[in-house]
Amino acid sequence: MEKRDLYNSNREKTGKFIYKDEEIPEGYYILVVVIVMQNKEGRFLIQKRSKEKGGKWALTGGHPKAGESSIEGIKIEVKEELGIDINDPILFKKTGKKNILCDLYYVNQDIDIKNIIMQKEEVEDVKYASLEEIDDLFNKGEFKKSHYKMFKDGIKYLNKNKVN
């Protein structure tokens, strides 16, 4: 059973943990990591979650396991879900709500879709999409709402920092 670290409101590990699917105790937080992956053509790698995970398009991400740092967590999640290694992801925003802390990452890396090995329990499909295509998926109700907001935060980061 997978363990997750519990954090305090200052984003510090408390030394306590919970198991996956356990309720988060009052006054504690868990960490989620999500990444916006873009290729050199300016398209974004998105994944369609398995039916058991809601079946919508989303960014790649998840929960670091107990003992993992945020950066280790995002690299491991991408490796587990897509079978690829990412180079030097940039932490561009720390956010959160209720009892969840979220670290948002960005990476510009050309990833050949043919080299992706999807974790079938998590991912049903992957593709590169333009900003307009992702907007369209969201407007049709086919893109996970929370991930769309994070994606838009990524676009703001890219525009502000003139990345790509």
Describe the structure.
The protein has helices spanning 70-82, 131-139, 145-161, and strands at 3-7, 13-19, 30-38, 44-49, 57-58, 60-62, 90-97, 100-108, 123-129. The chain is of the alpha+beta class and 164 residues long. It has three helices and nine strands; from the N terminus they run ββββββαβββαα. The strands form two sheets. Strands 3, 4, 5, 6, 7, 8 and 9 form a seven-stranded mixed beta sheet that branches. Strands 1-2 form a two-stranded antiparallel ribbon. The longest helix is centred in the last third of the chain and has 17 residues, at 145-161. The termini are far apart. β4 (44-49) and β5 form a beta hairpin. Helix content is 24%, strand content 34%. The model has no long low-confidence stretch (mean pLDDT 94). 27% of the residues are buried.
Short structural summary:
The protein is of the alpha+beta class.
Mean pLDDT rating:
94
Query: Helix/strand/pairing class, anyone?
Result: alpha+beta
What overall geometry do the principal axes of the alpha carbons give?
globular
What is the C-alpha radius of gyration, as a whole number of Å? 16 Å
Q: What is the total tally of β strands?
A: 9
Helical content, roughly? 10-25%
Q: Which consecutive residue ranges, at least 5 long each, have pLDDT under 50?
A: none
Return the string of H and E elements. Answer: EEEEEEHEEEHH
Main beta sheet, described?
Answer: 7 strands, mixed
Distance between the termini: 40 Å
By DSSP (H or I, 4+ residues per run), the number of helices equals 3
- Indicate the proportion of strand residues: 25-35%
Oligomeric assembly:
single chain
